[in-house]
Design brief:
Largest sheet: 9 strands, antiparallel
Order of helices and strands: EEEHHHEEHHEEHEEEEEH
Number of helices: 7
Shape: globular
Helix content: 25-40%
Radius of gyration: 19 Å
Strand content: 35-45%
């Protein structure tokens, strides 16, 4: 007797076969993450900067040097937080880009992480969507763990729409502070078994993070 279960696959001649929809989903392997991250020139064209340089690159999620209040809003404040990403990823890379020197006009953090399958990747986005639902329109206090190096600041979270690709499974928000034109647009979206998270900050509400994540998603699709 043959059984076909929607979303799970089917049995063909006694051999399980994957669902055709799932089989067609793009799949990114950890060794290809560097190939899909955007270059400084590619990001520069999106954010209108010709002098971006790579500041650093991480191969594992990290923990912030700040505490946050409300505590549940931490994922909105810090890109690729190790507490939020957990240990289910099997490949990870975060690349930091900005202009040289202390008077930079842009700061971009582009992250790609791979997971066992698309369900695990989507569950992380759904987790962020839940956090955003709790934290939108709220002020979040960022307190440095080492008070001698910096002082506390208050940042406002605003939920925004992912207009560049309405089909994306994503969470999108901006972070800003009163009295400053510095705004960070943030997007987390999936593409197959990969999570793409981008924070793109500038002295304007440019909302370029969604465009950058969508370009990375397009690169992942092109690999398959």
């Amino acid at each position: 007797m043959l059984f076909a279960v929607a979303g799970c696959g089917r049995v063909v001649s006694g051999v399980p076969a994957p669902d055709p929809v799932v089989a067609k989903m793009p799949r990114l392997t950890p060794d290809k993450i560097s190939d899909v991250l955007l270059t400084t020139d590619e990001v520069g064209k999106i954010v209108a900067s010709t002098t971006l340089t790579q500041k650093f690159e991480n191969t594992v999620p990290t923990a912030p040097n700040f505490t946050y209040a409300p505590t549940q809003c931490a994922p909105m404040m810090y890109t690729a937080d190790s507490d939020t990403y957990g240990d289910k990823w099997n490949g990870f890379r975060l690349r930091s880009l900005q202009e040289a020197g202390d008077n930079y006009q842009h700061a971009i953090y582009e992250t790609v992480a791979t997971f066992k399958n698309f369900l695990v990747a989507e569950s992380l986005v759904h987790q962020y969507q839940g956090v955003l639902a709790q934290c939108k329109d709220q002020d979040v206090t960022n307190t440095p763990k080492d008070a001698t190096k910096d002082k506390a600041s208050v940042l406002h979270v605003n939920a925004v729409t992912h207009n560049s690709d309405p089909t994306a499974v994503s969470a999108d928000w901006t972070v800003s502070s009163t009295g400053s034109t510095w705004v960070c647009s943030d997007t987390m979206r999936t593409q197959g078994n990969a999570i793409i998270e981008v924070s793109s900050c500038a002295y304007a509400d440019a909302r370029t993070s969604a465009v950058i994540t969508d370009r990375i998603a397009a690169k992942i699709r092109q690999l398959n």
